[in-house]
Specification:
Rossmann fold; 2 domains; four-stranded parallel beta sheet; 11 helices; 8 strands; globular
Length: about 325
């Protein structure tokens, strides 16, 4: 019998209602791969932080419609992926599992098992690997699968990172050009392209996390494709707490650019494949207001990848390339005559 194949999309998750903000924050800060302190300290700290940040975080989500769209968009991406795979002859089940909110990864694993999936391709929707995202999701996946006996577990293939995949790079470059072309920009006013990625604590990088290196690689590949026609910079957003995060910080750089007479900025959310609070509120509201105060006359943002056909095509290619690799690895070596 041919194995029934499933594709599991992993993402971060986010609260869909204001009343879900506090339990979501608890899930986030109680995650041992996000907050690396002993469990006896981490869980009380998670309860405290979620309580203290609830009202402030709710105000952010209120400004973007009352909740995060990340689940809706990810599920739409899954349906689009399944449809295109089927058009290419692959009748695969596509599933969505979230790191910090519904549908949680362990619940999705139960569905995968009940559906009789015997081969699973795991595709984290984080192009650049970090222990705080891809690593945390995979740890949860392994824990969920650990509840089953070996004969109940599907064979599993993991696509751990795809920061340099040509279709991903091509899609980002195309979106930047579209944003510049659609704005009918005055060529006299130079555009500064600001790649803004989600930050991580600096100590993770010192411990070997490849996220920053891979993000820089993505940026350089995109700029190569664009012919390096624009000034550009990679910055990091969404820092939290008293620990030192990776610099330079996006908000600080926006202020510096304004003071240095830059008047037009195009922000590219480089590590985000779907809209959520970091794009819709942090960039579109907070940073836009900061840019205006700093003298930036034209502040624009490239949309997240969302349901762009070329991005869905990239996901299909990632899955199909892995199928070919798995097939090659399973084939016996030719016998010499």
């Amino acid at each position: 019998m041919n194995p029934r194949t499933g594709v599991l999309l992993l993402n971060f998750g986010g609260p869909e209602k204001l009343e879900e903000v506090r339990p979501f924050l608890y899930q986030l800060f109680a995650d041992p791969d996000v907050i690396r302190i002993p469990t006896l300290l981490r869980e009380p700290l998670a309860r405290l932080i979620s309580m203290l940040r609830e009202k402030k975080s709710q105000s952010y989500y209120r400004r973007i419609g009352g909740g995060s769209p990340i689940r809706r968009i990810t599920e739409e991406q899954g349906r689009a992926l399944a449809s295109l795979l089927k058009r290419n002859g692959h009748d695969f089940g596509v599933y969505v599992g979230m790191q910090c909110w519904h549908p949680f990864i362990d619940a999705t694993v139960e569905t995968i098992r009940s559906d009789g999936i015997s081969r699973l391709i795991v595709l984290p929707l984080f192009p650049q690997y970090s222990v705080t995202t891809t690593g945390a999701c995979l740890a949860k996946l392994e824990k969920a699968l650990g509840r089953f006996s070996p004969d109940q577990r599907p064979s599993m293939t993991i696509i751990r990172q795809w920061h340099d995949h040509p279709l991903y790079v091509q899609t980002l470059a195309g979106m930047i050009l579209e944003a510049l072309d659609s704005a009918c920009l005055n060529p006299v006013m130079e555009t500064h392209v600001l790649f803004s990625a989600h930050g991580i604590p600096e100590r993770y990088v010192k411990q070997g996390d490849p996220y920053v290196e891979q993000t820089r690689s993505t940026v350089e590949l995109v700029m190569d494709r664009l012919g390096r026609r624009f000034p550009y910079q990679l910055t990091f957003q969404s820092r939290l707490g008293p620990v030192r995060w990776i610099r330079p910080y996006t908000d600080e750089v926006i202020g510096q650019l304004g003071r240095s007479s830059v008047r037009r900025i195009l922000v590219v959310p480089i590590s985000f494949v779907s809209e959520h609070v970091e794009t819709l509120y942090e960039i579109d509201v907070l940073y836009k207001e900061l840019a205006a105060r700093s003298g930036i006359e034209d502040f624009r943002r490239v949309p997240a990848l969302n349901l762009r056909p070329d991005f869905i095509g990239c996901l299909v290619r990632l899955v199909e390339e892995r199928l070919v690799e798995d097939s090659s690895a399973a084939s016996p070596a030719p016998r010499s005559s």
